[in-house]
Model the fold of this input.
Amino acid sequence: RAQAGHGRKNSGKPNQSMKPKLILCLALVLRAGLFGLVLASSSCQSLQNREINKTSLEKNGVTAEVSVPDAVSPGQPVEITVRITNTRSQTVYYAYVNGIRELRIHLVDSRNAMPELTPEGKKSIGVPEIYYSYRVEALKPGEHYEWRVDLATLFNFRPGTYQVSVNLKLNTAVPGIPPFEISTDPLGFAIQ
Done:
């Protein structure tokens, strides 16, 4: 006699009532695995966000944002990103020299000394301001412009800590509003 209970024999083949349960179980396992991947991905992203130092400053309706990695290995690029955004209702103008010079980069080490310039640095930023030419660029309301500069092509870095800032000159061409500058706070980074 059959015992009380399910009353079905297991023939070794999944029966129709087991298929949905297996599919559901498989879906839950896969979902948990994918959820784990998503968590790992977002933790890597937040780690990357902590590795970038950022500062921003708004003046006369223009915002300057600067970012630099907080630590870089010797011999690797040290990319600084500078972005200006015009939030004014009028066009602002800036001088474009060579993609570097107009940023007026100020960089010092932990002893407050500027590192030695590379040959490229001597050509790009080592020449006194009176000896270079520029063109005037317009930044219309709502527009932005971004520079990306590898500081390692301009400076000979040794292991240590550094501070970098930029100073941008802008003009509005609006009567009564003189040209103005945006000088960002120094951002620290390390070569290690």
